[in-house]
Amino acid sequence: MKKNVNISLYDRILKRSFDILFSLVGLSLTGIIIIISYIIATIDTKENGFFTQERVGKDGKRFKVIKIKTMKSNINFNTTVTTKSDPRITKSGEIFRKLKIDELPQLINVLKGDMSFVGPRPDVPEIMETLKEEDKVILSVRPGITGPATLKYREEEKILAQVDDPEKYNEEVIFLDKVEINKKYIREYSFIKDIKYIFRTVFNHEINDEERGFKI
């Protein structure tokens, strides 16, 4: 496992302190939204309103990511990716996904230290096991709720809905591009950029190809 040598001890402490403080603030402000969304999701899916899934985090450590459930799990659908027209998505799930409400419980993951506000998105073990050795540097930081790759592919479901083989396109194009973006994020890490990524996420601003240099 390649260790990250680009983020100073000061920046690591600053980043973690920010995560703890603002995850607490976020949970206090959105707690009622999470509870109401959980109840709605439970009724709509007739299952547990929380969706948990094993993901790979910092240094390859596995953890359970927490989200509001937006899809029914009792529908047989042979794919590991989600597209805009996925029949598993519930009516309430469409709204939760559009407003990103389903992501709010990840504040718990941030508070616990599984995740950070900004970083590479955590993926499932089966996908992360395909990483080349030189790409494993993305595991040297905590995965994030948002980040440059997440912003660029904010409309990922729409993109996948337009290709013939969404799963193949995700593995051969999108995932590899995200890896390169995340490697650059780590090489050129800046706490100020983290703050800007958060603001871009809140105000729904995507990152396009010309902005991949992160001159923000």
UniProtKB/TrEMBL annotation:
Residues making up the signal peptide according to the UniProt record: none
GO molecular function (one): phosphotransferase activity, for other substituted phosphate groups
TM regions (residue ranges): 20-41
Pfam families referenced in this protein's UniProt entry, alphabetically: Bac_transf
Keyword Transmembrane listed: yes
Keyword line: Membrane, Transferase, Transmembrane, Transmembrane helix
Domain named Bacterial sugar transferase: residues: 15-203
Keyword Disulfide bond: no
Family: Belongs to the bacterial sugar transferase family.
Protein name: Sugar transferase involved in LPS biosynthesis (Colanic, teichoic acid)
Native organism: Selenihalanaerobacter shriftii
